[in-house]
């Protein structure tokens, strides 16, 4: 059952739970699948929302979460519509899915994890507010796979906020916007009474690949956009670094679908990209972008294996790149300095995001004065490092939430994060979580890790 309430009257203060009433104009939920965000009245901006401060809760509803839309999960979940802003500071609405372990009661000491998914798509069927719901049909979604990892945070008793960080138009790859939306999602979660959190609740940040990029924008924008938030640490996995470098590196590769998706998104926001598409793309090239924007990333990649951008252009790509340099400069991460401690994990031989781009992002953070711990993994590749690094990532964040002292920032290149004995317990717990998620079982708390287990690799 889904319960909806308009709560814009709560203004900027905490939402204390008015009697839910139907959202005006919302049709009864069909017995099968939820509506995609573009067709769901819940996502429509309430009248007068722009007058309110960023992070103000506008509307709430309870939802059911299910693995791949099929296997119901034992969690308590709400969706919160709140006020945020776009790249240019114009008011817009955004949505976050907030979660607690099933049966958990409000607890002011509970920490909050802001998890940014690798949406990596323009289609709203890959937005977490849709893809994680029971009955969702989200072919090619990476977010649905990441649920198995998010469940590990819920087993630890943390509250979780998963914002639709690409916004209502699916602006994959756009600068700064993901940070605004995710930070305002944290603000909304802290004001949401059923979570029982405080204004100074400890907040951890985590994301990988496209989610690592969004998490990078979160911690880069936090000092100026949301300095009041108590962000105690962030784990950025393969966080893209330099989109221009990734764009050129993937052109003509097995993963050429990613640049196509990004271009389809960027033309919605950057006039220079839109001009290039209209002026320099062949009709076949524009059809390719239309196809890329309609599908999830796992569905797009097989369709575009080995495709070269020059095959879809009226002139060579090398002649077009100068027109896009200002845009690429805007997209580059590392030009703002996070205030919180940061752990970056990256495969040395990443076939999607070249390690040199992440080396540069880390270097720029450190030059700005950020405290960055950097772990480079020789044996992992892009897709394997996310699960393999999950125990280390969560343990490192748990230490930050507990206020444990860090050593001096380091850069370590290891054969594999999975070879550390301190991580073996975490790998077993992660496998247990995956089994419970797959079978739809309760997410019981894991065994507590021994004190100091993480320090040898990522402290």
From TrEMBL:
Pfam families, per database record: LIP
Any single GO BP term: lipid catabolic process
**GO molecular function, a single term:** triacylglycerol lipase activity
Region annotated Disordered, chain positions? 1-46
UniProt feature, compositional bias: Pro residues: 17-39
Q: What is this protein called?
A: Lipase
- Give the originating organism: Nocardia terrae
């Amino acid at each position: 059952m889904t319960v909806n309430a308009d709560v814009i009257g709560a203004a900027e203060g905490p939402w204390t739970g008015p009697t839910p009433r139907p959202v005006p104009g919302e049709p009864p939920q069909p017995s099968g699948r939820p509506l995609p965000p573009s067709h769901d009245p819940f996502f429509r901006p309430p009248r007068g929302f722009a007058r309110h401060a960023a992070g103000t809760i506008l509307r709430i509803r309870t939802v059911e979460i299910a693995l791949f839309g099929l296997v119901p999960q034992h969690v308590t979940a709400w969706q919160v519509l709140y006020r945020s802003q776009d790249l240019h500071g114009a008011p817009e609405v955004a949505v976050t899915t907030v979660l607690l372990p099933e049966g958990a009661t409000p607890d002011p000491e509970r920490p909050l994890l802001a998890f940014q998914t690798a949406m990596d798509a323009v289609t709203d069927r890959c937005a977490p507010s849709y893809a994680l719901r029971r009955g969702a049909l989200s072919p090619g979604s990476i977010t649905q796979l990441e649920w198995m990892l998010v469940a590990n945070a819920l087993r630890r008793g943390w509250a979780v906020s998963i914002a639709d960080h690409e916004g209502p138009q699916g602006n994959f790859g756009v600068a700064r916007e993901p940070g605004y939306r995710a930070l305002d999602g944290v603000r909304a979660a802290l004001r949401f009474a059923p979570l029982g959190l405080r204004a100074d609740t400890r907040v951890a940040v985590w994301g990988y690949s496209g989610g690592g990029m969004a998490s990078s924008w979160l911690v880069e924008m936090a000092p100026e956009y949301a300095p009041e938030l108590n962000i105690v640490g962030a784990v950025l996995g393969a966080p893209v670094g330099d989109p221009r470098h990734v764009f050129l590196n993937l052109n003509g590769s097995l993963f050429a679908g990613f640049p196509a998706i990004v271009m389809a998104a960027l033309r919605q926001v950057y006039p220079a990209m839109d001009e290039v598409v209209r002026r320099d793309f062949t009709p076949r090239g524009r059809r390719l972008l239309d196809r890329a924007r309609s599908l999830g990333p796992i569905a797009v990649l097989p369709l575009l294996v080995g495709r070269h951008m020059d095959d879809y252009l009226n002139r060579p790509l090398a002649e077009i790149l100068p027109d896009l340099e200002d845009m690429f400069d805007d997209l580059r991460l590392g030009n703002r300095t996070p205030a919180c401690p940061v752990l970056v994990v990256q495969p040395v031989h990443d076939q999607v995001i070249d390690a040199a781009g992440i080396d540069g992002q880390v270097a720029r953070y450190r030059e700005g004065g950020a405290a960055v711990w950097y772990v480079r993994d020789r044996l992992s590749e892009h897709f394997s490092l996310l699960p393999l690094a999950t125990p280390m990532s969560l343990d490192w964040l748990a230490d930050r939430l507990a206020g444990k002292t860090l050593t001096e920032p380091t850069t370590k290149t290891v054969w594999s994060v999975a070879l550390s004995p301190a991580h073996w317990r975490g790998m077993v717990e992660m496998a247990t979580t995956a089994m419970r998620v797959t079978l739809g079982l309760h997410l019981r708390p894991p065994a507590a890790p021994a004190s100091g287990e993480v320090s040898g690799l990522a402290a």
